[in-house]
Amino acid sequence: MRTIIEPFRIKMTEPIHLISKAERLSALKKAHNNVFLLDADDCCIDLLTDSGTGAMSSQQWAALMLGDESYAGSRSWKKFERSVQEITGMKHVFPTHQGRAAEALMAQILVKDGDVIPNNSHFDTTRANIEFVGGNAVNLLCEKGMDLTSNESFKGDMDITRLKSLIEETGVEGIPFCMITVTNNTGGGQPVSMANIKAVKSLLQGYDIPLIIDSCRFAENAYFIRELEDGYADKSLLEIAREMFSYADAATMSAKKDGLANIGGFFVCQNDDWANEFRNMLILREGFPTYGGLAGRDLEILAVGFMEALEYDYQVYRHATIKYMGDFLEKKGIPHVKPVGGHAVFLDAREFLPHIPQLNYPGIGLVNTLYIEGGIRSVELGSVMFGHFDANDREIASPLELVRLAFPRRVYTQSHFDYMLEVIETVWQKRSEIRGYRITSQPDFLRHFTCYFEELV
Ligand SMILES: *Cc1c(COP(=O)(O)O)cnc(C)c1O
Fold this sequence. Notes:
Elements: H1 21-30, E1 45-46, H2 58-64, H3 75-88, E2 92-96, H4 99-110, E3 116-119, H5 124-132, E4 136-139, H6 160-170, E5 178-181, H7 194-207, E6 211-214, H8 218-228, H9 237-246, E7 250-254, E8 265-269, H10 272-285, H11 296-309, H12 312-332, E9 344-348, H13 349-352, H14 362-374, E10 376-377, E11 379-381, H15 383-386, E12 388-389, E13 395-396, E14 402-406, H16 414-429, E15 437-441, E16 452-455
Helix pairs in contact: 1-14, 2-11, 3-11, 4-5, 4-10, 6-7, 8-9, 12-16, 14-16
This protein binds pyridoxal-5'-phosphate.
Pyridoxal-5'-phosphate (PLP) binds next to helix 4 and helix 5.
């Protein structure tokens, strides 16, 4: 088989620079060894997140110029609504400025104090918004999803048996809705199968509990279904996405992912009562329902972006780059989460650096070494991000110590990926020299963003 090529050529460039190693050491020191505090200009390859960091197509840039900035009922809104309805089949469409705005309004209108909201894995903003209004966000990831090294498909599936017991224990009145996140970001970008979405829906139907899809990576999930699930090989990604949404009563979306845009989101639903309440809250918090916190030009960009995310060639290329990285890591025996997900590669820092105890943050050791070695910015998903303190103020480690390399959409080329692999391999060879860290100052919440680290000697 021939090389899978990027299905685009480059019309506009943005320079990137690799500052010298001495400059990287000094930049990291100035940032108190926390890569969140680095200047972006000091990062040559920035893999901090795939959210809002993608490149737009010439069609999207052209659409931007057509933005109708009318306050109410703009042409751009009509295009946005048509595009979202074509994919989701939902009656009511509401634009929001980001995914978390859709989640916040959803939680505010649907979740009461003490309610339980099941999900395969709640994304951190989803969990925070549910907990903020007194809800209890419960993760019910299937068993195979817990095993980092098995190569099974659809490790993002929901555990149906545990969902059933949760409903029986809690009672239907305590569960206003159930969620499924596609793909499962928190669990390594693993996809959810159509069979699982269908089975969840049919279980919920028996109890009259609605299903809401967190659809940020709906197009990547549709691609996995086409490639891996029986019966979908001849379907278009649009048809598969439509089927996924057909089992849902509502969906939230961060268009910074599969909207191929730098900002945006939406909430969609079938239920008229939910729509009325959402509309009222949207006007209060985001804006008039035909722009919802976005400019007309953003709505134009998104109407095009949602459809481009469903182009088969684009998804083939995106998954090929991620698989290319996964195959290399496998060949070199570098520990990572398997199979590789839809938007990122996750290195297993605990296996990578077994000499560093978890509470000396092996993930931070790896993140910082990737930066010093090659100017690559990645992110720790381990005891700094997810660790917590018990009643006696003792720090409890996270079950996993991962380092995520998230890939912005349509941004980096094959040679960038080859460079990343060279850097990772060098770091792997030097792994015994990497040291742990301790935290010297931290805030009360979401400490990973702003805490200061000191390297242990
Ligand atoms: C990014 C993301 C969100 C939140 O969206 P924002 O646009 O960042 O507010 C919610 N759920 C998932 C799965 C996400 O990846």
